[in-house]
Design brief:
The complex is a heterodimer of chains A (263) and B (288). Chain A contains 6 helices and 14 strands. Helix content of chain A is 21%, strand content 19%. In chain B, helix 3 links the parallel strand 2 and strand 3. Chain B has one domain: Glutaconate Coenzyme A-transferase. Classes of the chains: A alpha/beta (263), B alpha/beta (288).
Amino acid sequence: MSDQPATRLEIMAAFLANELEDGEILRIGAAMPVPEVAVRLAHFHHGPNMELIFIGARFNAAHLDVLPTPEFGWDRRVVRWAESYSDTGHRFDRVKDWGTHVFFIGGIQVDKHGNTNLIGTGDDYEKLDFRGPGSVGTSTLATHVGRYYIVVNSHTARTFVDQCDYVSAFGWGDGDPEARRRLGIPGGGPKYCVTPLCVMDFTDDTKHLRLKFVHPGVSVDEVVENTGFDLIVPADVPETPLPTDGELHIIRSRADRRGALRR
Amino acid sequence: MSHPDRAERLIDEHAAAEWITDGMTIAIGDPAPMAMIRHIVRRGVRDLTVVGSGLGLDLLIAAGCVRKAVAYYVGGGPAFRAAAEGGDIEVWECEEGVLVAGLRAAAQGLPFLPWRGGLGTSLPEINPDLRVFEDPINGETLLAVPAIDVDVAILHAAHADAFGNVQHVGGPGWLDLFLLRAADRSIVQVEKILPNEEVRAKPWATTIARIDAVVRLPFGAHPFASNGFHVQDKSATRQYVTAAAKAQRDGDRADLDAFITTFCREPASHLDYLELIGVSQLLSLHEY
């Protein structure tokens, strides 16, 4: 099983897993297969003190062979493995400590400053060209969590746009590194943007997305062509580190037994 | 035993359904109280403002019952998508934290509550009810979220006695407690009615008190899961999504209308609905 090379989704998950430190509190929303596998991998691989919060179920289950996977957004059966459960309403009673939490956010659009859109696309809000699923809890999470990662399932010029039609989660606003502080937003903002093609970070002075790694087999040109704004490309863009054999084994035997990232 | 003059709050499904009338603001909990939702569809209630999420809300939209959706997430809801894109419904655009602030404001009798999440986003532009303001204490910029007052909250839970003491298996989920507190009246459909003695034997197990109406509707959340009783009936939810997606994609509502007619309009009672689904199908949905 581990003879097959890592898929791009597995590379994304392993990259994210290596970002996560033991002891961190990780919040994972619905329908985010790459972050789900990433946190499981990190938990099994180097994070026995991590707390994983799937929707409202909070657990530490590093001692188990496998971790439960919600079959749908509110699959309460995952609570069987949890040490506590919080409903959606009470979850917002303690945002004060979210500065130590890590979150993963998706988007139907991501702009050059890491603002994201789950609302929809089109000029006329009353009659959107595409109605998205809605902001879920991302506006508040992006406001308060210590850091978050933008993770998308497709990297196209339609996803990566100069400006989002609507912003559901504030990243770096207009690119001013002080944008968050000016608005009184306590959270640390997006750190990386991870896509099936590459990993991007933000420049220090303009908070503009910048290519950091390309996945093996992906060219810099391919990323640039599929990005709808002028991506900042450094002279040297290394390849994204591949999962080690040990990490890949954990992914395939424990973190992603159903093979969601191998499809 | 309770005092013989103590009024029971147990009512039947048809009486409860009459509480919901055109133009009301209703809130639907999680799991969606599908038996009551099917009654709303069957009775052809219109112009509802609905605080909700998921496919329960989507079905109400598909059936033409909704004027305005107070929604932060209707992922996978084809009718919501079609109606929002077509301008057929109004969306009161919000987000989980924002919605909780509005429900809390309603529960506490306040005109609004402040919230920080959503600052810098498009939310206050596309939902002008959300106002950016300067707080009078520290001069910080915050969002004012107006009270979201609800006429009737409809929830699904495990047990209740005849006096409106409700118990959950696994605790109340999602926003149920907040919907209830924001509402003037509440209906809870339950799997099972308990004797009052059983409630008084362990009052700490009462998760919600003072419900206005209790309706006994076993399997009343079907096709969604009911904690401690049955899992989701994926074949049924898939059937709905397939029909609604076809309507959204091709504009061909034939399958969707047939679904609504067969499962919501034709069964006159919840029992008729359960007979339509069939004992073997219902009992194939194991408890956990």
